[in-house]
Amino acid sequence: MPDIQHGIEVIKNNVKIAPVNPGVYRMLDKDGKVLYVGKAKSIKKRIVAYTHFDRLPDHIKRMVAEVERMEFIIVENEAQALLMENDLIKKLEPKYNILLKDDKTFPHLMINLKEDFPALRKSRGARKDKCKYFGPFASATAVNEVMDIIQKTFRLRSCRDNVFLHRDRPCMLYQIKRCSAPCVQKISREDYHKTVDEVIAFLEGKNTDLKEKWSAQMQAASEALNYEQALVLRDKIKALSSIQSGHNVEYAGIASADVIAAVKYKGMVCVQIFFIRSGQNCGNIPYFPKHVADMSEEEILEAFISSFYAEHEPPKEILVSNELENCAFLENALSTSIHCYQKGNKARLIERAIDNAKASVERKLAESASVEANLFEMQQYFGLPRIPQRIEIYDNSHNQGSYAVGAMVVATPAGFDKKSYRTFNIKYTENTHDDFAMMKEVLVRRFEHMSAENRPDVILLDGGLGQLHAVHEVLASYDLTGITIIAISKGPDRNAGKEFYHILGKESFDLPYRSPIAFYMQNLRDEAHRFAIGTHRKKRAKSIFKSQIDDIEGIGAKRKRDLLNFFGSVEQIKGATLSDLMKVEGISKKIAEKIYNYFHN
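Request: output the structure for the sequence above.
Response:
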């Protein structure tokens, strides 16, 4: 048992030398392992709190008892402290920090104001200069819904530049009144840019101003007997009114806010976040952070905000389900306001986030129970020594022997473990039409890097008895203790649900038709197939593009990407003139001449 009093003395000694500046502190145990990483506006004032032992929660008391030494890093301000804390937590994964898996990039809507006729596009990742961004949206579906509204109401183009630059007649979107066809001059540049300004105003929530403006223009057009223009404006006003009537009144007047609720419910913790922009609900997403069993909802919420907004741009306001102890620090670091409302529309939004967090926990528990039931049935049907904790599923993919790849996906009681997925470029198999030989290569390479931590309970192969015997033969020199190898082959008429399963030393069998365990086994095989096909297609596409362009001097990854995004295909690049090539950002006259000469010599 660690010496509690010793830990307190260590912290007291560090209080004497701790800086009063903003920064990050680390607590380490006797082995030098980092126990906790924290941030503070004043490091000295923050760590004094750990010496008031009786006021600390139980999990913090356990941490203090393990502290052997401390380290400090001084930074310029709260924002720098927030970023550094997040980086260190991700790198070190300390035992007492809440860990949030957040490698997700959220989609945005983007308008590139550098273009003569700016298009409305979906965007992820890094931002570009002179582009307007709107969002984030929780999903691609939410983005598509807003894009559909804008196309119906404003008729802004959404096509790629290579399509736009080479059209000689309007496309179908113009015919169904979803585009104003600037590609063939159906609208002037001046009028199109007025439309762009209206779209920006709409996405910024200035709908009332738009309606007043359009009403005045419609009246003027009617008085001038320009009834066609008046009808267009009337349709725009009707469309905008329809959109506004469909919105929840609770979102009205909210320009930019995230609603975040942390809930401990039925033994699980869920953090739910809603994105509200320009009076519109842009979707919501749940998170299930780690290392939170002993944490309060307030601690979880504060840690989530620190981690999440170190990676994502904060809104103007954050609505939270609990009052935060370090609210002022976070507000200064993020340049935003954080509020916990007890009444009014915003309080109802917080309640909705809490309800959704509880519902997400219910779904998670139901999914876990379903997977556990399937794994138990799998143990029974296949005679496994224990309920499998790690299942590896393998598949191959190639195109008439070309671009051959092997793929491994991993399933656990928590679901598919995508971080453990692996791909294998087939290197040593001469005949890539031979699926047996390719599978042998993949499994040998996998077993050479096997450890106690990543040892599977089950290996599932997409194939029949021949595949099963071939794999056992090639793995005969490896220790297969505790590993069950199963092959799954198509049943009569190749019908899904009627597959046969093969295990060495047992008679082949099928599972009850349309039973949960049958569906589960199909899902495992289908995920491996999906992953293998996707990997193969990426390799093929990369190889095709590489063979055409990689040999051109001065063309690196970024220029290749910009060329392809601009022209749409290598064939279009081949046929482009010098002047067309120079329109691509980053392509000078000298580079354009190299590209042109490469394809025309």
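The chain has five domains: 4-92, 108-249, 255-362, 391-540, 550-600.
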